[in-house]
Amino acid sequence: MKSREQEYKEIFIAEALEYFDALNRHISTLEKEPDSDETLAEIFRLLHNLKANSKAIGYLQISDVSHKLETAFSLIRNKELTFSDEVVGVLFDGIDLLGELIHNVDNPNYGEPDPVLLRNLDIIVENLSDSTIELAKVQKYNTSKNLALSELIYIQIRKLDHMMNLVGELMIDRDRILSISRDLNNDELKSVSSHLYRITEDLQYSVMDARLVNIGSLFNKFPRIVRDVATAEGKEVNLELIGHDIQIDRNILQIMADSLLHLVRNAITHGLEKPDERQAKGKGAVGVLRLAAQSDRENVLLKLQDDGRGIDLKQVKRTAVEKQLISAEAARGMSDNEVLSLLFEPGFSTAKEITEYSGRGVGLDVVKNAIDSIGGRISVDSQKGKGTTFSMQLPSSIAVKGALLFEVDSIYFAIPLIHTDQVVSLDKDELHEVGGVLIANLKGETVTVVYLNELLNAPEATMDLGDKSRLNGQVQNIIIVSYNNRKLGLIVDKLYRQQDIVVKSLSKPLDQIDIYGGVTLLGTGKVCLVLDVPAVTRYFIQRKQG
């Protein structure tokens, strides 16, 4: 069992890290608005609470640094100290030191804080004024005499993960019981199973809700990051953050953190121009970087937009051909979206000249793989000279996915809805063979179409994806999926319904088959394979280009 002292320590660290993120955000705001009394008051409150909490639990180094910073900000607040560049630098370093101390509370190898830095803080505090040292002692934050316990409970994410897995197992059994009750046609069993369905659904959403965090907990880290990268690059950047209150699964946010950091750094380093270059182009000297979140049905849509130099599509094609990612012939027939999708290909990131021309390409395959791993989607849109936008569609939960069920050759399959654009029925005569593959015209857009039975079951030597004679019936049910700026039509035998499914990993040796992302059990007891849309799309594109 975990000791009470250890639990208190974990709660303190969780709160302290939140304070650290908030301090970074507020000090960045204060640098732009040095006369903001509201921001100063919030910084002072955070430091005062951090000082008190760390002293109570015995982290005296954190308490000492918090006290020095608290006093310095009280001097600024009382107009006894100017928020100058020199002072800003020391205070930023002081905030960094706080973060370092918090992250290393359990690290036995962590040494003493930097004594040069501590002396600088002392100089700011001691040599300018001592009339406000007692400010913290007389400041009254709460005059209430009633005792009240906090309504907030900190719980480890692994406990919620375990609960989510149990709920997933329960959902599978629930659907099975519901199916059996229908088959037996027993009214009492139907009533009980219907009630079980509602209770299980409420439990599922309750656990999923408990895992949600505000996306602002990640967004709040970026003002400081943007400031540091922009300063190092000699650029001026105005960061706009929109949608702090949008909620998302904590695990998904954790997986996305590094990817978003990479995209933000890339946008500043390579996408946005330096002030003189921007002015020469008729732009404002200050570059604009906008990071926005919004709810999109059951998903979260993240957009990162810059008004920088954009992407040179011709240069992307040339480099892709040079790197032998595609043939020169294939490059000529590519649409703009297909060209942009090349940026996410492994091996493309080594192209130094693309980084210089387009500001993109370094490690974007890693970003795409991270988003693929959580069942999300990423796309890019760009206009040369005007800027670039990355759009990321993320699921609300990893464990439970909305899926479309269908059948191919008497086998049940599912496709996650996040990759499903639309479902259409086309006459066989509306499919045309071009270059050994089938294509369809959908609202003016040409989409390649694949007979899924042929792709999944036929030996590669006999596979002919462009042979219409192999299709069953005259009318074809086609699921249009989208991945990496590309669309692909999948012809299936029968379409069923949309349904929430719990995806379980395949056991060996089936887990080695890339095109399957897992398996689920339907209420009828039938096994249903879950298609991995990224893998299917990659396989087809590689075969087509090969």
Protein described:
With 546 residues, the protein is of the alpha+beta class. It folds into four domains: 4-138, Up-down Bundle (Four Helix Bundle (Hemerythrin (Met), subunit A)), CATH 1.20.120.160; 157-210, Helix Hairpins (Orthogonal Bundle); 214-395, 2-Layer Sandwich (Heat Shock Protein 90); 400-545, SH3 type barrels (Roll). It contains 19 helices and 18 strands. It has helices at 4-32, 37-57, 60-77, 85-103, 115-126, 135-138, 157-184, 187-210, 216-219, 222-233, 250-271, 275-280, 313-322, 328-332, 336-341, 352-358, 364-373, 452-457, 533-545, and strands spanning 212-214, 237-242, 247-249, 287-296, 299-306, 377-383, 387-395, 400-408, 411-416, 420-427, 432-434, 437-442, 445-451, 475-483, 486-492, 494-502, 516-521, 527-531. Helix 1 (4-32) runs antiparallel to helix 2 and helix 10 (222-233) packs parallel to helix 11. The N and C termini lie far apart (57 Å). The model is unreliable at 128-140, 142-150 and 353-362 (pLDDT under 50).
Characteristic key phrases:
Four Helix Bundle (Hemerythrin (Met), subunit A); Heat Shock Protein 90; 19 helices; 546 residues; alpha+beta; 47% helix; Helix Hairpins; single chain; ATP-binding; six-stranded mixed β-sheet; five-stranded mixed β-sheet
* Spatial ordering of strands, largest sheet: 10-14-15-13-12-11
| Strand residues, percent | 15-25%
Helical region count?
19
Could you say which structural class the secondary elements and strand pairing correspond to? alpha+beta
| Counted beta strands | 18
Number of domains: 4
Poorly predicted runs = 128-140, 142-150, 353-362
Q: Which CATH first-tier class of the largest domain would you pick?
A: Alpha Beta
What do we call the CATH homologous superfamily of the largest domain? Histidine kinase-like ATPase, C-terminal domain
Largest sheet: 6 strands, mixed
The CATH topology annotation of the largest domain reads as: Heat Shock Protein 90
Domain CheW-like: 400-542
Modified residues (Phosphohistidine): 48
Organism: Pontibacter korlensis
Keywords: ATP-binding, Chemotaxis, Kinase, Nucleotide-binding, Phosphoprotein, Transferase, Two-component regulatory system
